[in-house]
Design brief:
This is Na/Pi symporter. Its main location: membrane. It is found in: Cell membrane. Pfam families: Na_Pi_cotrans. By secondary structure, this protein is an all-alpha fold. It has one domain. It is built from 18 helices and no strands. Helix 4 packs across helix 5, helix 8 packs across helix 14 and helix 12 packs across helix 13. The chain is globular and about 60 Å long.
């Protein structure tokens, strides 16, 4: 053995166990940051608006505007987890639940922009691009169809609000039977109160808005790094789940899509993983369709975690909007995928559009620009 070999052998090797412990500690810290950020945003809106929180959101009283705000914000940030966590925090600050529900629906559509952009990576090969674009946009059209079905029902009957309210009433009875101790409040309140005291010399409006903006920044930071941390911990396991589950039936596909999304903390990542597999001809759009629907369900966990940070009078309503996100996605899968006629609509539209886009590639860019940006902006101006 050479001297070089001996010197390398003497060098300490990184301990995999210590690395995993560090990553899990990092993950717990980032979850704490989300909880703290939600509390700070809620405090900021309360401080800025006083007793007139609802007036701040009058611009979104139109459900269509709420939908577009959620959709456009998610398309820009490319993370429905981030946007829904912010919506939870806004509800804690006084945003009415009726306005927040269309925003959550819009977030589902906005998040599908990522996998559509990923499909553009196959643009140089006509056949690959056609398959990849079909795989990407089937998620878009499923989410749009859910909005077409459930938004009118919500406007007319308050379907999701009533279902979630029933669940919250049941949870409230359980909560009142406990001792009332809230561990999340215990670990976040001291720091949140310290941040409030730092802006106390400023006017209530200015101080409140600074807190709200800082909270949004913390959420974006935390969820971005949670995604990276979870990928480093789980991406190998996630790929194993993906390869063993896809093509094994719709129930298995939906369940595995949910699990993978919880593991990597990003529905965009989950859906983007399968687009190249379809583009390269390994799988078909129909094979990955249930898997992408599971991603919708799995991404709800972040908003549920965020809702735990809210205390006081808005605690239950913050949990309610997080439950709305989950109930909406579960009902969407049950209704749209459960009814054969509805199930085929996203597939047929995606396959038809992908054939056109493969012939005229500029249509792919036009689709992304128009659906996620131009049409929402036009709708905002039209509604005014």
């Amino acid at each position: 053995m050479s001297n070089l070999d001996l010197s390398l052998a003497d060098q300490p090797q990184e301990d995999p166990g210590k690395y995993l412990v560090f990553k899990w500690m990092q993950l717990l810290f980032l979850i704490y940051i989300i909880l703290l950020a939600v509390s700070v945003i809620g405090d900021g809106f309360k401080l800025a608006t006083g007793e007139h929180a609802t007036a701040l959101f009058e611009f979104a009283q139109n459900p269509l505007l709420g939908l577009i705000i959620g959709m456009t914000a998610t398309a820009l940030i490319q993370s429905s987890s981030t946007v829904t966590s912010i919506i939870v925090a806004m509800v804690a600050g006084g945003l009415p639940i009726g306005i927040a529900i269309p925003m959550v629906m819009g977030a589902n559509i906005g998040t599908s922009i990522t996998n559509t952009i990923v499909s553009l990576g196959h643009i140089t090969n006509k056949n690959e691009f056609q398959r990849a674009f079909s795989a990407a946009t089937v998620h878009d059209f499923f989410n749009m169809l859910c909005v077409v079905i459930f938004l009118p029902l919500e406007i007319a009957f308050g379907l999701l609000e009533k279902i979630s309210s029933t669940v919250i009433t049941w949870l409230a009875k359980i909560q009142t039977s406990g001792n009332g101790f809230n561990p999340v409040k215990a670990i976040t309140e001291p720091f949140a109160e310290r941040l409030v005291s730092l802006v106390s010399p400023l006017s209530e409006l200015m101080g409140g808005m600074i807190l709200a903006v800082a909270g949004v920044g913390l959420i974006v930071f935390a969820i971005t790094f949670i995604g990276r941390t979870m990928k480093s911990l789980m991406v190998g396991k996630a790929k194993n789940v993906l390869h063993h589950a896809i093509g094994k039936g719709p129930v298995t596909g939906i369940f595995s899509g949910t699990i993978v999304t919880v593991m990597v903390q990003s529905s965009s990542t989950t859906t983007s993983l399968v687009v190249p597999l379809v583009g390269n001809g390994i799988l078909k759009t129909r094979d990955i369709y249930p898997f992408t629907l599971g991603a919708n369900i799995g991404t709800c966990i972040t908003a549920l975690i965020a809702s735990l940070a809210v205390t006081g009078e808005f605690a239950l309503v913050a949990l309610q909007i997080a439950l709305v996100h989950l109930i909406y996605n579960v009902l969407g899968v049950a209704v749209v995928f459960g009814i054969k006629f509805l199930r085929e609509i996203p597939l047929k539209i995606a396959e038809g559009l992908s054939q056109r886009v493969a012939e005229q590639k500029i249509l792919g860019f036009a689709y992304i620009a128009s659906v996620f940006f131009v049409m929402p902006i036009v709708a905002i101006f039209a509604s005014q």
